[in-house]
Amino acid sequence: GAMFTNCVAFMPGLFGLLSRTRKESHVALKVIMDLIALACQLTGFVVWPIVEYNKNPDVWRTWIIPAAIFLTSFGWWENYVDKNSKFSTIKYFGRIKERLWKTRYFCYIFASLWKILIFFAIMVLSMGTRLDNFSTVFDLRTAFSSHSINVTEVRERLPGLLVPDSSTVAPLEHTQPIPSEQGTPIYVFLIQVFTAWLCYIFGKFACKICIQGFSFAFPINLTIPVSISLLITACGLRFDHACSFQVIPEYLFWECKNGDILNDFLNNDYAWVWLFWLLSQTWITLHIWTPKCERLASTEKLFVTPMYNSLLIDQSIALNRRRDDEGDVKTEDLNLGADDHENEVSQYYETISIHTDSSNNNASKIKSSDQITRIYATATMWHENEEEMIEMLKSILRMDEDQSARRVAQKYLKIVDLDYYEFETHIFFDDAFEISDDNEDENVVNQFVKLLVNLMDDAATHVHQTNIRIRPPKKYPAPYGGRLVWTLPGKTKIVAHLKDKSKIRHKKRWSQVMYMYYLLGFKLMDQPISVDRKEVIAENTFLLTLDGDIDFTPSAVALLIDLVKKNTNLGAACGRIHPVGSGLMIRYQMFEYAIGHWLQKSTEHMIGCVLCSPGCFSLFRGKALMDDNVMAKYTTKSSQARHYVQYD
């Protein structure tokens, strides 16, 4: 029975074969391997019925096994059909698969009820043909209480003597009743349910944190070999010591052959055929060794159906694991050869504006590069001191170093990095100008802007552990004041927006309004591309809000990205922040921040409304900020006393 569970992949293998296209690499070799795997799976339809029939020709029920395998293997059809197949039937199933993606839970309300009824009906019919009294099937009180089980013993086969056929063996003069243990069916049921649930939970966890190869695929392929090895070992111990495994009731212990157990297992039960079943299942589920989903992916992205089959748990989660996690991003679409002297507008958008016309039908075609993560780090500054500024600049330069390493790896090694992102920093300086000492009619940048310019080289030297001089920033006049643009060693940019309070509203909220409209309105919505492409880009565009004294690492940003990618309905995610230093006041602040993050915000998250996401280190999804009335509400002018508390 344990070996036979490797034979339930026939229909997935058949659908996978019929779904192959010529666009795949080495398609001829894959088709040959599919045919061999199907042939191996097909042997399971006849081997066990033949073995059991040879043992007892009167047992006709064994010929139900092929039908049971065939119908069971249909349970995972959805994962192996493709609408791009050249066979019309497979295309039809592929279209059904797409519709099920949207209506799965509604359909399963009725499908689950049908499964329960059909499963129960088949069980009743099967048991009814084996019992003399059909009403015994519904006698639950006797089943779950202690009752006698009649066991008729036959004479033991003596080695070296002729033994008559089993039908002529005379039973002993009396039947030995064995009392059953009360509650045993409940214990067996609970053990099965609990262990299957643990297997599913830990398997899903391994897929979520991207350790699927060693912690998911490898254990699944070893489940049946290890189980069979343990069964054979237990039989050997039981044969040597009859009192072994007393914790298992004798009437529930599996059948063990006397004598050479391993030889009898391999020859009489044709166990060597099982190796072909195992290898064929491994080939059909080969996709579980090469996952492509992102970290912390949702259950719907990991598995075709969020449910599992507890009776065949290892086959269920292997065949149910999605084959088409995500489409690959092509390296030629990543725009890795941008000019070093381009202006502050992304080269990607310039390419669109030059080569794409809004009236062109091709403009609506979504590119794989539209799904690249774009992070705009937005920091607000006012009167930060030297220590605070240099900490933030070092954090930005670490992000520049990390992004550069990913970009270079893709450009020269042609490796698609699923965590690749584009990065750009925007610093908004409030009240950045002051009256010149030489001319009262002229405004010049204040000492804090000069401090930022002077600290750029020091921060780069500290991060890269060598003396580095960054090119002086380019200066641009702007309606709100001015703009300084640095190109960092990793080719990302820092854009400092210098606000003149006589030309534009000052304070932090209006700086946030400014960068939201600039980055999401001007740099995205004003591009001559289709609305569909803008929607996809907005879905993968994120604003990383920072304070001028923040210190963080690229791994902290990656955790926030993973969180918002896990749930497309998530609009913002905030990192846990804490002050640095020593002393009682600092420790109190650490405690206060921890309470606010782990208790207050976690509670608000479960309720469904987080009241505040700290602006010092939070990640906002661009599409969420562009939703109806979000920016309109945030740009409300303060006209009442409570507005100054709520908004400013």
Describe this structure in words.
There is one protein chain. The chain is α/β, with parallel strands linked by helices. The protein is built from 22 helices and twelve strands. It has an eight-stranded mixed sheet, with helices on both faces. Strands 1-2 form a two-stranded antiparallel sheet. Strand 7 and strand 8 (481-487) form a beta hairpin. The radius of gyration is 34 Å and the shape is elongated. The termini are far apart. Mean pLDDT is 81; it is low at 338-363. Its main location: membrane. The chain crosses the membrane at residues 27-51, 63-81, 105-125, 186-203, 215-239. One of its GO terms (molecular function) is chitin synthase activity.
Q: What is the topology?
A:
Layout: H1 10-18, H2 27-43, H3 47-55, H4 65-73, H5 88-128, H6 140-143, E1 148-151, E2 176-179, H7 184-208, H8 212-240, H9 261-267, H10 272-284, H11 299-302, H12 313-320, H13 347-355, E3 373-381, H14 386-413, E4 421-429, E5 433-435, E6 443-445, H15 447-464, E7 474-478, E8 481-487, E9 493-499, H16 508-525, H17 531-539, E10 541-547, H18 554-566, E11 572-574, H19 584-607, E12 617-621, H20 622-625, H21 630-634, H22 641-646
Helix pairs in contact: 1-2, 2-10, 14-15
Number of distinct beta strands: 12
Q: Percent of residues in helical segments?
A: 40-55%
Q: What global shape is seen? A: elongated
Gross CATH architecture of the largest domain: Alpha-Beta Complex
Structural class designation: alpha/beta
Q: CA-to-CA gap between the ends?
A: 70 Å
- Quaternary arrangement of the chains shown? single chain
Helical segment count: 22
Q: What is the overall pLDDT average?
A: 81
- The fold-level CATH name of the largest domain is Spore Coat Polysaccharide Biosynthesis Protein SpsA, Chain A
CATH top level of the largest domain? Alpha Beta
Beta-strand content bin: 5-15%
Rg is: 34 Å
Major sheet summary line: 8 strands, mixed
Strand order of the largest sheet: 7-8-9-4-3-10-12-11
Q: Indicate how many domains the architecture comprises.
A: 4
Model regions low in confidence, pLDDT < 50 over at least 5 residues: 338-363
